[in-house]
Amino acid sequence: MEIKHNNLKNDSYNGYSVVVGRRDRDSLVFSGAPRSNHRGQVTLFRKMNHKWEVMSTISGEQIGSYFGGSVCVLDLDSDNNTDFLVVGAPMYYKPHPPGEGRVYIYRLTQELKLEKEKELEVFESAQGRFGTTLAAVADLNGDLLQDLAVGAPLEDNQKGAIYIYLGNRDHGIRPQYSQRIVASSISEKLHHFGLAIDGVMDMGQDGLTDIAVGAQGTVVLLNTCFNAAENTNSKGMITWNTGAVKSGLNGTLELKADAVRQYSRAFFSAEDKTSRSLVTSVLLDSEVSCYNHTVFMNSCVKDTVSPVLFRLHFHQSDLQSKSSNSILNIDCKTTTQVEVPFQINCRNTSCVSDLQLDFKFL
């Protein structure tokens, strides 16, 4: 069965990019025509009574942008209903700052209309043709939402790069990419990295989705790392979701005493009263990790009313062991603080002044 838009000319290149979707019982086809009216167009077709009817059309903004050169759909919550349409315009040009390529996110309404949600651009892709390829990839960060991979095969002097965007339940995709993977970080011999992308299967049989990326004359398989969802609580205890992780995560703890004061009342070394900060390298290899540190105080503390504030910050170390397959989830809480009060001898731990003034004339 042939699917046509009668108002499109043959030189519109209708069908240059195609993706299928579904909304309830309706079968959908999204077809890109990047040369339609020189600006590009995407048409949404719905199958009704064995015929395909046009439900919605969207057009590009800029002449020659090749809007509709790539399309993909997002089923964010994997309920077999298409939620968003992603459209690439890889030759969209912006002079200040210079950039080539733009990606559009459209929401699919219940009436099967397409409403623009947001636009994605990157400043690193001056002549990279960002948006040449689009691929919905399985959940990468453990939030149970589909994610998006975008190819820019001409970036970095035609070596190529891909960008990973995490899903967002309300707006489809987060506006800022979570990771940029350049070809030169894999091999200097790669060219046009990002010409094709697919990421729905677990090729390594480790329970994690992997991403296959096409380049000139080769295919690169990118293995996904486990996202460690870490949390620091007010006691300085670190808990994290071990999930499918098979090895630990190397991290750095930074603990600061009396963090909001210019001069600290507490320190971590008996010999050095200026040692208000403590940096420790740790290996997280269990669900709960606890670390004990001794705190020293000045012999004479003038302010015993204000509590001592301890601030703890955790981040992943740049140097990871080769056996580690974990990375720190970008959404996890990495900073916490706790106030430690001084012991006071007041009823109900609440000191209330009871001063009386008495005088007499002499």
TrEMBL record:
GO terms for molecular function: integrin binding. It is found in: Membrane. GO terms for cellular component: external side of plasma membrane; integrin complex. GO terms for biological process: cell adhesion mediated by integrin; cell-cell adhesion; cell-matrix adhesion; integrin-mediated signaling pathway. It comes from the Eukaryota. The keyword Repeat applies. FG-GAP repeats lie at residues 53-115, 116-174. InterPro entries: FG-GAP (IPR013517), Int_alpha_beta-p (IPR013519), Integrin_alpha (IPR000413), Integrin_alpha_Ig-like_1 (IPR013649), Integrin_alpha_N (IPR028994), Integrin_dom_sf (IPR032695). Keywords: Cell adhesion, Glycoprotein, Integrin, Membrane, Receptor, Repeat, Signal. Residues 222-343 form the Integrin alpha first immunoglubulin-like domain. It is a single-pass type I membrane protein. The keyword Transcription regulation does not apply. PANTHER family: INTEGRIN ALPHA (PTHR23220), INTEGRIN ALPHA-L (PTHR23220:SF84). Belongs to the integrin alpha chain family. This is Integrin alpha first immunoglubulin-like domain-containing protein. It comes from Ameiurus melas. The lineage of its organism: Eukaryota, Metazoa, Chordata, Craniata, Vertebrata.
